[in-house]
DNA sequence: AGGTGAATAT
DNA sequence: GATATTCACC
C-alpha cells in the first residue's frame, strides 16, 4: 500500500518536474530569439534544462527517500538569478517583444513545434538591432555580443542595452529635438517597428478601424507617440488604398473580391498558401471588423522601394507571411465607400 | 482624439 | 524632385 502511495506521489512529482521542464524548454525557445543579446541567459536556461534532465532520472532512486527536491530548486534558483537581470534591462523594447510575440504567436495557432522554433529563430534577425528605430550615429557598437561567458559581460551588455534604449527612446529623442531647434527628429520606422505596427493593425481589425492610440498601445513601443503612429497610419492608408486598379483581380471587376487579411491587403498567394491552418485563429480580434472588414483597400501596387510599406516588409525572408497570417475577412462593396479614392474636403 | 493638408526634412 | 514625416488646424 504504502509503496503504492509513494509511487503515486513520486509519479506526480515526476510529472510536475516534467511539466516544469516543458515550461523551461518553452522558455528557452522564447529566449532563443534573443540569443544574441542574451547569450548567457539562453545558456543558463539550457543548462537548467540539462540539469533537470539529468536529475529527473536520478529521482527514481533518490525520490524514494529524499522526496521532492527534484531539480525544481536548482532551477528556481537559477532562473531568477539570471532572468531578473535581464528583466530589468528589458524595461521597454525587449520585454515587450516577448509579450507581444507570445500574443501573436498564440493567435497563429499553428503550432508546429518545429516551425515555431524556426520562426522564432528568424525573428532573431530583427533582434540583431535592438534599437527599433535607427539612429546610426547613436548606435552603440553592438559588436560586443561575442558569446560572452562571464556574468560580468552580462552586465556590460546590460549597460549598453540600457544606453541603447535611452538613446533611442523618448529621452534621446527629446534631447535631439532640442538640439535640433525644436522640430522633432524624424522617426525612422524600422522594419521591426513597422512589423509591430502591422501586427497591431491586425489585432485591431485593420487600418480603417484601428486608431492611432490603440495601435500605439498595442505596439508597446516606448517613446512612440500618438502622432507618429497617426502619421504612419495615414501614410499606410494612403498607400494601401491606391485604387490604381492594378489588381490582379481575375477580371472580377464587379465583385471585387479582394483578399483582405486582417484588414491588411495580402497577396492572394499568401493567404491561400495555407499554412494558415490555424490562421483563422485571429478570432477574438475580429472585433467589429465585420462591417469594415472589407475596408481594406485594394492591393497597393507596390510600395516605394525604400519604404517600409512594401508588401515585403518582412525582413525575415522565408518566414513567408509570418506577420500576415490572419483571418481572411470577406470583401464587399462596402469598401468602395470607405475607401473612396479621395476624401472630400469636409468643411 | 482622429483626420487632413501644409510645411519641412531627407 | 519625390517622399516621408511632422506640424497645425478642424
TrEMBL record:
<keyword id="KW-0805">Transcription regulation</keyword>
<dbReference type="InterPro" id="IPR044787">
    <property type="entry name" value="HHO5-like"/>
</dbReference>
<dbReference type="InterPro" id="IPR001005">
    <property type="entry name" value="SANT/Myb"/>
</dbReference>
<dbReference type="InterPro" id="IPR006447">
    <property type="entry name" value="Myb_dom_plants"/>
</dbReference>
<dbReference type="InterPro" id="IPR017930">
    <property type="entry name" value="Myb_dom"/>
</dbReference>
<dbReference type="Pfam" id="PF00249">
    <property type="entry name" value="Myb_DNA-binding"/>
</dbReference>
<keyword id="KW-0238">DNA-binding</keyword>
<protein>
    <recommendedName>
        <fullName>HTH myb-type domain-containing protein</fullName>
    </recommendedName>
</protein>
<feature type="domain" description="HTH myb-type">
    <location>
        <begin position="183"/>
        <end position="241"/>
    </location>
</feature>
<feature type="region of interest" description="Disordered">
    <location>
        <begin position="92"/>
        <end position="113"/>
    </location>
</feature>
<dbReference type="InterPro" id="IPR058673">
    <property type="entry name" value="HHO5-like_N"/>
</dbReference>
<dbReference type="GO" id="GO:0003677">
    <property type="term" value="F:DNA binding"/>
</dbReference>
<dbReference type="InterPro" id="IPR009057">
    <property type="entry name" value="Homeodomain-like_sf"/>
</dbReference>
<dbReference type="Pfam" id="PF26575">
    <property type="entry name" value="HHO5_N"/>
</dbReference>
<keyword id="KW-0539">Nucleus</keyword>
<dbReference type="GO" id="GO:0005634">
    <property type="term" value="C:nucleus"/>
</dbReference>
<dbReference type="GO" id="GO:0003700">
    <property type="term" value="F:DNA-binding transcription factor activity"/>
</dbReference>
<feature type="compositionally biased region" description="Acidic residues">
    <location>
        <begin position="96"/>
        <end position="106"/>
    </location>
</feature>
<keyword id="KW-0804">Transcription</keyword>
Amino acid at each position: 500500500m504504502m509503496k503504492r502511495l509513494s509511487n503515486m506521489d513520486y509519479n506526480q512529482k515526476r510529472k510536475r518536474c516534467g511539466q516544469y521542464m516543458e515550461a523551461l524548454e518553452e522558455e528557452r525557445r522564447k529566449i532563443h530569439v534573443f540569443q544574441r543579446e542574451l547569450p548567457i541567459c539562453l545558456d543558463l536556461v539550457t543548462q537548467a534544462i540539462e540539469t533537470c534532465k539529468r536529475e529527473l532520472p536520478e529521482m527514481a532512486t533518490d525520490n524514494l527517500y529524499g522526496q521532492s527536491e527534484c531539480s525544481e530548486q536548482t532551477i528556481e534558483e537559477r532562473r531568477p538569478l539570471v532572468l531578473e537581470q535581464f528583466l530589468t534591462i528589458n524595461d521597454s523594447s525587449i520585454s515587450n517583444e516577448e509579450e507581444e510575440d507570445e500574443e501573436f504567436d498564440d493567435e497563429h495557432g499553428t503550432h508546429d513545434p518545429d516551425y515555431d522554433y524556426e520562426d522564432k529563430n528568424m525573428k532573431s534577425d530583427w533582434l540583431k538591432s535592438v534599437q527599433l528605430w535607427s539612429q546610426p550615429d547613436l548606435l552603440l557598437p553592438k559588436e560586443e555580443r561575442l558569446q560572452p561567458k562571464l556574468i560580468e559581460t552580462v552586465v556590460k551588455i546590460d549597460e549598453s542595452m540600457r544606453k541603447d534604449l535611452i538613446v533611442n527612446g523618448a529621452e534621446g529623442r527629446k534631447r535631439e529635438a532640442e538640439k535640433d531647434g525644436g522640430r522633432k527628429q524624424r522617426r525612422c520606422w524600422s522594419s521591426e517597428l513597422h512589423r509591430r505596427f502591422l501586427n497591431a493593425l491586425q489585432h485591431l481589425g485593420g487600418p480603417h478601424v484601428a486608431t492611432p492610440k490603440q495601435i500605439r498601445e498595442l505596439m508597446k513601443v516606448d517613446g512612440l507617440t500618438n502622432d507618429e503612429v497617426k502619421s504612419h497610419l495615414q501614410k499606410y492608408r494612403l498607400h494601401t488604398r491606391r485604387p490604381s486598379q492594378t489588381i490582379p483581380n481575375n477580371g472580377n471587376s464587379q465583385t471585387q473580391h479582394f483578399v483582405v487579411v486582417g484588414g491588411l491587403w495580402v497577396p492572394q498567394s499568401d493567404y491561400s498558401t495555407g499554412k494558415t491552418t490555424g490562421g483563422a485563429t485571429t478570432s477574438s480580434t475580429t472585433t467589429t471588423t465585420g462591417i469594415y472588414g472589407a475596408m481594406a483597400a485594394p492591393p497597393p501596387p507596390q510600395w516605394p522601394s525604400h519604404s517600409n510599406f512594401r508588401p515585403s516588409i518582412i525582413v525575415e525572408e522565408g518566414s513567408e507571411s509570418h506577420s500576415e497570417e490572419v483571418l481572411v475577412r470577406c470583401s464587399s462593396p462596402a469598401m468602395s465607400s470607405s475607401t473612396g479614392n479621395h476624401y472630400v474636403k469636409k468643411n
